[in-house]
Amino acid sequence: MPLIPTSTPSHPTVFLLRAGLFLGGISGMGGVMLMAAAAHVDTTGLMNQAGEMLMFHAPALAAMGLLAQLRRAPIAALALTVMSIGLALFCGDLVMRAMADHRLFPMAAPSGGMALIISWALFALAGLFCRQRS
Q1: Do 80 and 65 touch, CB atoms closer than 8 A?
Q2: Does residue 90 contact residue 42 with C-beta atoms inside 8 Å?
Q3: What are phi and psi of 132, to 5 degrees?
Q4: pLDDT at 117 > cutoff 60
Q5: Which residue stretches of 1-134 are H helix?
Q6: Confidence of residue 112 (pLDDT cuts 50, 70, 90)
Q7: CATH of 12-128, one of 1.20.120, 3.40.50, 1.20.58, 1.10.4030
Q8: What DSSP letter does each residue of 70-84 carry, written as one string?
Q9: Judging by beta carbons within 10 Å of its beta carbon (0-12, 13-18, 19+), is residue 74 exposed, middle or buried?
Q10: Dihedral, CA atoms, 92, 109, 80, 33, nearest 10 degrees?
């Protein structure tokens, strides 16, 4: 059996693989950019925190896409979606507070943080309940 199952380009697992790798790459790139900008323009430290969060979660986003491709793990798609939304809310709020001195919207960062916690739980469940692809 090949390491990566052959699938048609339109197969849902191929989309999840591409989405996970794309979002992981964008998250890593955004993290580096925010941490570089924080060194020059941010006096609050919030941009650096947002950059670190993006960097820490980038490999997980890629791993979720890989898990969805290699195994039958439908929960991985949900985890990927929830983590992406959580990062956007949490990091978006931190950057907005650092740059514009106001929040994205009330409870944006806590909502994003809860989404991140839930996404990690979903990722754990996806790993626990994944099955061999046949």
Answers
A1: yes
A2: no
A3: -60, 135
A4: yes
A5: 12-41, 46-70, 74-100, 108-129
A6: very high
A7: 1.20.120
A8: HEE-HHHHHHHHHHH
A9: middle
A10: 30
How does DSSP classify residue 106? T
Is residue 130 within 8 Å of residue 71, measured between CB atoms? yes
- Whether the CB-CB separation of 84 and 23 falls below 8 Å is answered with yes
Domain locations in the chain? Answer: 12-128
Q: What is the rounded CA–CA span in Å between residue 71 and residue 127? A: 9
Q: What DSSP designation does 103 have? A: -
Backbone φ, ψ for residue 126 (5° rounding): -60, -40
Token pair 């039958």: residue: 72
Q: What is the pLDDT of residues 17-74, one digit of tens each?
A: 899 999 999 999 999 999 999 999 988 999 999 999 999 999 999 999 888 888 878 8
d(CA 89, CA 93): 6
